[in-house]
TrEMBL record:
Protein name: Uncharacterized NAD(P)/FAD-binding protein YdhS (YdhS)
Organism: Fructobacillus cardui
SUPFAM superfamilies: FAD/NAD(P)-binding domain
Domain FAD-dependent urate hydroxylase HpyO/Asp monooxygenase CreE-like FAD/NAD(P)-binding span(s) in chain numbering: 4-183
InterPro entries, sorted: FAD/NAD-bd_sf, HpyO/CreE_NAD-binding, L-asp_N-monooxygenase_NS-form
One Pfam assignment: NAD_binding_9
Length: 617
C-alpha cells in the first residue's frame, strides 16, 4: 500500500507514529511525507532565526509528539519523553550529532530545567526531527518511510488511488492520502492589495497576516512609525523582533522588576486591536504534564444529560451558565486557599460550604470573610467596554497589564483569576465533544463561533507571562503608543492611517497585521488547494446555514467528522482522501492545540481515527 502524508507537522507525525505502531507485519507499506519545510513543519522551523527567540505558549512538560491514544500501549515515559524531559536527556547528544542546528539550541537545552519555563519554537522543531529519527528506528522492515522536503503542487484521482505532482515536477502514486496542511497564507483581498501597492509606491513596508517568524523587519528602524494591528500571540512575536531584535535589551533588576534599555534603532510602535487589549497571560505553570482540572459542575456527563432533557440540544445560555459557574467555584476556592489567617480546618469547612452554589452569596456573612463573590466572566473578557476616552483607556490598559501580571504570577492552579481562566484550556475536550456531537442548534453554533470564541481566546490563549511584563516596560520606555479599541487601518495620500473607537487618528510608515490568516481553503495561496478546488475534490461545509442563507463554515473543507474522509463537489465521500487539523477549524472545536501527553489530545484522537480508516478500509 502506498500512503502519502502531505504536511510534516505534529498532526501527520502523529499519524506516522500510529501507522508504525498499528501496521500489520504481513502488509508492505510505503509512506511518502511531503513538506516544503523541515520535519516538524512551518511553525516550528528551527532554521528560521526568529524561532530561536520566539516562545511556544505551552509549557514544555505539556508538549509531546509520542502518540499515547492507547493508554498503556506505549513504552515507558523515559523512552517517550515530553519536550521538557527530552531537553533534559536526549537533546544535547542529538544536537552534537547534528551540526546543522544553530548553537543557540544547545545553550537553550542546558537552561531549560523547569516546567515553569518556555521552550523556543525552534527547539520544538529540533524535538520533531529527533522524534522522526527515533520512531524510524522502530520501523518494521515491511514499512518504508521517506521524507521529501518539497511542496505538493497537485493531487488528482487515479481511480483507484491518487496521482501526486510536487513543485519540482516529480510524480508519485498513493492509494491513500492525508492532508494536514496547518495555517496557510491567503491571497490578498482587494483592500490588502491596495495597501501593498501603496507601500511599494511610497517605499513603505506592509506585512499582511502570516507566520510572524518569516517577517523581515531588517529595513525598519528609528525613522519608522509602525502601526501594529492585532494584540494576540503574533503581536508579541513582532514586538520582540522590533525591540530586542533591534538591539534593545530587557534586564532584570535586583528587586526582580524588569527594565528596557533601547538601542536607539527601534521603530516607534502604535498598537491596537478590535478589543483593544491583549489576551490574559498564561499563569506560572503549577501543573504536571497530564494534570487537568477536574470539573465539579461542567462535566461532559452533566452537559449531555442537559442536552437530552432539552430534546437533544444544549442551549448556549445553559452551556455558558454552567461553565461560568465552574470558573466561579475555582475563583472562590482559590481565594479561600490564599487566606493565610485561616487554619486548614477552617478552610476545609468553608470549602465544603462552597460546594453548593446557593451558598456563595452567604459565605462572607457566615464566615466573616471578604471574598469577592460577584464576578462577571463576560466583563473579564471585555473589561474596557465602558471606558469613554483615550486617556482613560491608556491608564486602564497599563493597570490591566499590572493586575494581569500579579494574577498570573500566583500560578495557573492557585491564582483565583488566572486559575479560573486556565480551566478553559483544561475543559476543551468537553467543549469539543459537545461541539462535534452537534448538540447546539444553528443559532447557538453562531454564538460559539463568535461570542464564545472571543471569550475563550481573551482568557485562555494568551502569551507567556514574560511577554506581558515586557510589553509593560516597553510602554513605560515610550517605545509603544497605545491606541483604543476598534483599531482600523487604511491609508491616505501620504501615510498608513488608523482610527479607533475614540475617533483618534494615527499615521505610520509601516503596517503590520499581527495575526495568522483566518483558515479559509477558498482563498489559500496553496497550489495544492487550488488544484483540489478546481477539480471539485474539496468543497466548503454547508451543513449549518444562517437565517440570511450564509454558511458560517463555508471556509472549511467539508469532511465526515467520524472518519475525516473528504466530500467532493457532488457531496460524495472520496474514499481514502483525508483532511485533519486547521482546515477543519469551525467544524471541529479548537484544532490548533499542540499535542499534550496522556490526556487524549485531539491530534492523537484524530490520528487514531484516520489510521484505523487507512489500515482497515
Amino acid at each position: 500500500m502506498q500512503i502519502a502524508l502531505i504536511g510534516a507537522g505534529p498532526r501527520n507525525l502523529a499519524i506516522l507514529d500510529r501507522l508504525i505502531q498499528k501496521a500489520d507485519s504481513n502488509q508492505a507499506l510505503t509512506i511518502n511525507i511531503f513538506d516544503p519545510y523541515p520535519v516538524g513543519g512551518r511553525v516550528w522551523n528551527p532554521f528560521f532565526e526568529n524561532n530561536q527567540t520566539y516562545l511556544m505558549n505551552t509549557n514544555p512538560n505539556q508538549v509531546t509528539l509520542f502518540n499515547d491514544y492507547d493508554i498503556g500501549q506505549r513504552r515507558g515515559d523515559d523512552l517517550t519523553p515530553n519536550l521538557l524531559t527530552w531537553a533534559q536527556s536526549y537533546a544535547l547528544a542529538f544536537l552534537k550529532q547534528h551540526h546543522e542546528y544553530p548553537m543557540a539550541y544547545r545553550e537553550e537545552v542546558l537552561s531549560l530545567t523547569s516546567m515553569t519555563a518556555y521552550a523556543s519554537r525552534g527547539l520544538m522543531g529540533v524535538y520533531a526531527a529527533w522524534f522522526f529519527e527515533e520512531i524510524l528506528k522502530n520501523c518494521p522492515s515491511n514499512l518504508s518511510v521517506r521524507f521529501h522536503q518539497v511542496a505538493v503542487k497537485s493531487l488528482l484521482e487515479a481511480n483507484p488511488g491518487f496521482n501526486i505532482t510536487t513543485t519540482d515536477y516529480n510524480h508519485f502514486f498513493a492509494d491513500k492520502v492525508v492532508l494536514a496542511l496547518g495555517h496557510l497564507d491567503a491571497e490578498l483581498s482587494e483592500k490588502k492589495k491596495d495597501l501593498e501597492k501603496f507601500a511599494k509606491e511610497k517605499g513603505f513596508h506592509y506585512y499582511p497576516a502570516s507566520h510572524p517568524a518569516e517577517n523581515d523587519f531588517s529595513n525598519l528602524n528609528e525613522n519608522d512609525t509602525v502601526l501594529v494591528q492585532g494584540l494576540g500571540l503574533s503581536f508579541f512575536d513582532d514586538l520582540l523582533s522590533l525591540t530586542a531584535g533591534k538591539g534593545g535589551s530587557f534586564l532584570t533588576k535586583k528587586d526582580g522588576s524588569l527594565v528596557y534599555h533601547p538601542s536607539g534603532h527601534e521603530p516607534h510602535l502604535i498598537i491596537g486591536s478590535g478589543s483593544g487589549l491583549p489576551p490574559r497571560a498564561h499563569g506560572l505553570n503549577q501543573k504536571g504534564a497530564n494534570e487537568l482540572y477536574q470539573p465539579r459542575f461542567f462535566t461532559l456527563e452533566r452537559m449531555q444529560r442537559i442536552a437530552k432533557d432539552c430534546g437533544g440540544h444544549l442551549p448556549y445560555n445553559t452551556f455558558r451558565h454552567v461553565l461560568d459557574q465552574e470558573m466561579t467555584y475555582k475563583y472562590l476556592t482559590n481565594q479561600v486557599n490564599l487566606l493565610d489567617k485561616l487554619s486548614d480546618t477552617e478552610k476545609e469547612e468553608i470549602l465544603d460550604f462552597l460546594e453548593n452554589p446557593k451558598n456563595w452569596q452567604h459565605v462572607n456573612e457566615k464566615f466573616h470573610l471578604k471574598l469577592d463573590v460577584h464576578i462577571s466572566w463576560e466583563k473579564e473578557a471585555t473589561p474596557s467596554r465602558d471606558v469613554t476616552s483615550l486617556s482613560a483607556f491608556r491608564k486602564f490598559f497599563v493597570q490591566h497589564l499590572k493586575e494581569d501580571i500579579d494574577s498570573a504570577a500566583l500560578g495557573n492552579d492557585k491564582s483565583p483569576l488566572t486559575g479560573a481562566y486556565d480551566i478553559l484550556r483544561d475543559v476543551r475536550g468537553t467543549v469539543r465533544t459537545l461541539y462535534n456531537d452537534r448538540l447546539f442548534d444553528e443559532d447557538d453554533y453562531q454564538k460559539l463561533l463568535t461570542d464564545f470564541k472571543l471569550f475563550d481566546s481573551q482568557l485562555s490563549v494568551g502569551p507567556p507571562l514574560i511577554r506581558i511584563r515586557q510589553l509593560l516596560v516597553l510602554i513605560k520606555a515610550k517605545q509603544v503608543t497605545i491606541a483604543g479599541p476598534n483599531f482600523s487601518v487604511d491609508h491616505d495620500q501620504q501615510f498608513f492611517t488608523a482610527t479607533d473607537r475614540f475617533d483618534e487618528h494615527y499615521q505610520g510608515t509601516a503596517l503590520i497585521e499581527a495575526r495568522l490568516g483566518r483558515p479559509d481553503f477558498r482563498t489559500a495561496k496553496s497550489p495544492l488547494l487550488k488544484s483540489l478546488r478546481q477539480h471539485g475534490l474539496i468543497v466548503g461545509d454547508n451543513r449549518i446555514i444562517n437565517q440570511d442563507g450564509t454558511a458560517p463554515l463555508a471556509n472549511t473543507i467539508k469532511v465526515n467528522l467520524k472518519t475525516f474522509t473528504v466530500y467532493n463537489k457532488e457531496n460524495q465521500l472520496i474514499p481514502n482522501l483525508f483532511v485533519t487539523g486547521v482546515p477543519l477549524e469551525g467544524q471541529s472545536w479548537f484544532t490548533t492545540v499542540i499535542p499534550r501527553p496522556h490526556v487524549q489530545t485531539i491530534a492523537f484522537t484524530e490520528a487514531a481515527t484516520v489510521v484505523h480508516q487507512i489500515l482497515n478500509q
